[in-house]
């Protein structure tokens, strides 16, 4: 749903319509309504809400644990629906016009990240359930928070949203397949069950959103004016709830989990960027790096809860929520203060 903030031409900064890396100037802000300025502020403060949610989840878990499996599923599905509401058939045609750029991002998401998860889990000799959880979250698609981080980092927001969409659709096959291949030797993996859940929670709501936007644009345009604010609140809850549900484990074993999960994200950001720089410009490389390092940890948590009997499998996803948001936002702020070269190569065709 955070993506809606950046795809709706009437909301926030209209970043998706800007040239790659452009950040609206004061004149753009002057054209905003007070409501739009509030939405922009609340959305770009997303990492702050995650930190507050994490603290709340650890020390007052009852405040967020009411968002359990069924409600959590509904909330995640609503997030996917909202992303679909910001997309059109033209977005998928743009994907065909940029196969190399989008394809590299897709491979970074489903090749680099899963292999990193497997290598880190085996090298650090994590227990079977924790290793499985780390591999599972590394096989999840890109998260909507990556669109916010891309905007802050002066990356290409339109490309980020498109990559998130492609990895989300690909998740129905890639997430269960890669989890089965990489974690099946550690614990039994129900690949079919994972695929069905991913289809129900991710693909169906996204498709419904796209069709609604195509055939009922007037109705959709009214909805997406307030979905960003709802998205910020809902995303924060979807981040805080997993922390609250595993707070007891985090208090006793959190220390040993922080390093492998943080290492997973740091390595993914670094590899995503440096491998991209071999072929692409600065703006596109920043975008691919963030897409590679930030994934839907909430989906990983939900799949772990529904398809693995050992509750420890869900813990890495809960830790990943925090590491992803903090790492991605820190990198975005760092890049925001490093200007894009004037002659930067535009690798994405609108």
UniProtKB/TrEMBL annotation:
Membrane topology: Multi-pass membrane protein
Keywords of the record: Chloroplast, Membrane, Plastid, Transit peptide, Transmembrane, Transmembrane helix, Transport
Main location: membrane
Nucleus found in the keyword field: no
Location in or out of the cell: Membrane; Plastid, Chloroplast envelope
Pfam families recorded: SBF (PF01758)
Signal peptide coordinates: none
Gene Ontology CC terms, in alphabetical order: chloroplast envelope; membrane
Transmembrane segments: 38-59, 71-89, 101-120, 126-145, 157-179, 191-211, 223-245, 257-276, 314-335
Similarity annotation: Belongs to the bile acid:sodium symporter (BASS) (TC 2.A.28) family.
Protein name: Sodium/pyruvate cotransporter BASS2, chloroplastic
Source species of the chain: Populus deltoides
